[in-house]
Design brief:
Beta Polymerase, domain 2, alpha+beta, 2 domains, Arc Repressor Mutant, subunit A, about 25% strand, about 180 residues, 7 strands
C-alpha cells in the first residue's frame, strides 16, 4: 500500500466511524479475537465515561458484532467471531493501524523473515501510540531494522518498535508467517 493509500484509508475510517469511542471499541475487539473487557475497565482504558462506552457496546452487540457473557457480577464483552463480517472488520482494523505497511516494509528489506507478530498494547487493543512488533527469521539485517523503525514511525504517525526474537510469541497477533499462504486482495 502506498503512503497516500494508507492516509486515504484512515480518513475513510474516521468518516465512516465518527464516534471515537466506537472506533476504540472496534480496535479493541477486532485486532485480536482473544481481547475481552467489561464496562468499567473499558471506560478506564479509553478515558471515557461509562455511559458513552455502554452505548457503543450495546449498539455493537445489537448489530451482532459483539457478544457478552456473565462472569461473576460482571458482563464481559468480546468480538463475535461467527459474525459474517468478523474477518472483514479485523482486516479493516489492521489497515487502519497500517500494519500491512509495516509487514510489507519488513519483508522487503530485513532478510529471511519467518514470522512477524504484533505484541504489547495494540495486541491487547489499546491505542497507546506505540506499535510493538516481534520479528523472527534468519540473517536479519539488524542495522536496517533501526533505520526502519524511525522511517515507519514517521510514515504511520505512531511509534514503531521492531524487535528480533527467536522464541515463540504466545500473547500476540500473527501478522505474517512464512508457512501460511496469504491471499492477495
Amino acid at each position: 500500500m502506498t503512503r497516500f493509500g494508507g492516509a486515504v484509508l484512515n480518513i475513510m475510517l474516521d468518516s465512516l466511524i465518527t464516534s471515537k469511542t466506537r472506533l476504540r471499541v472496534i480496535v479493541k475487539f477486532f485486532i485480536n479475537a482473544a481481547n475481552r473487557g467489561h464496562l468499567n475497565a473499558l471506560a478506564n482504558e479509553f478515558g471515557e465515561s461509562t455511559n458513552g462506552v455502554r452505548k457503543e457496546l450495546n449498539k455493537l452487540k445489537k448489530a451482532g458484532y459483539l457478544i457478552s457473557k456473565n462472569e461473576g457480577n460482571k458482563v464481559v464483552y468480546l468480538a463475535n467471531i461467527k459474525h459474517p463480517l468478523y474477518s472483514t472488520l479485523q482486516e479493516l482494523v489492521k489497515k487502519h493501524l497500517r500494519l500491512d505497511e509495516i509487514v510489507e516494509a519488513v519483508l522487503n528489506r530485513i532478510g529471511d523473515v519467518s514470522s512477524i507478530c504484533l505484541v504489547g498494547d495494540y495486541a491487547k487493543g489499546i491505542d497507546s501510540g506505540t506499535i510493538e512488533i516481534i520479528i523472527d527469521g534468519l540473517n536479519l539485517n539488524k542495522a536496517y531494522l533501526l533505520h526502519l523503525e524511525s522511517k515507519l514511525s514517521r510514515l504511520i504517525s505512531r511509534k514503531v518498535s521492531l524487535n528480533i526474537c527467536h522464541e515463540e510469541v504466545l500473547n500476540g497477533v500473527i501478522l505474517y508467517n512464512k508457512n501460511i499462504k496469504y491471499h492477495e486482495n
